[in-house]
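Q: Sequence in, structure out?
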Amino acid sequence: MRDTPIGRRSLLGAAGLLAVSEPSWAAADKPRVKITTNHGSITVVLEDRRAPLTCANFLRYVDAGGYDGGRFFRAAKAPWDPTQGQIVGTTNPKHHPYPPIAHESTTMTGLRHLTGTISLGRFEPGSATCNFFICASPQPYLDAHPGEKGDNQGYAAFGQVVSGLSVVKKILSLPANGKTSFPEQKGQWLDPPVPILSMKRV
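A: Exactly. Output:
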């Protein structure tokens, strides 16, 4: 993630919350990952058939224990409503990132940044490694928008929260006045960060 998802298209982001329907996401053969924090657990189901590269990359870190001892370090609240936005997580700093992967945009996968969507962070397309974020509300401006000027490829959505959305919203609500070297992210860095105690397949 360019680590600046909030603020690109604020009017679009003001859309109301969309309900997450587990039956549409949670087929038994799809990978599930449980993210355990000191505020509770979040379970995500991964769309490994629609976003195979992104899911394989994420699971590579999960299976290697790379997220164990990691953290949610950012809570990017929407300026129009602090209950909307996304939380950003990363690996244990001792786990060296794997090489970047190709970008699977939402136009390729058909996935969208809805309430509970998990997506891969990046800078330019093709730079994504281990940072991920979870949407606490619909974030349509994070989808690809072909035809628009500049970087219009959006972010790589690859799964959905099926349990623990209240934990996502709790983390989003925490104090976020930590120091950051990105001026546009002032007021978005969690202080203290939320530890990821473990991240495992379930």
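The longest helix spans residues 52-63.
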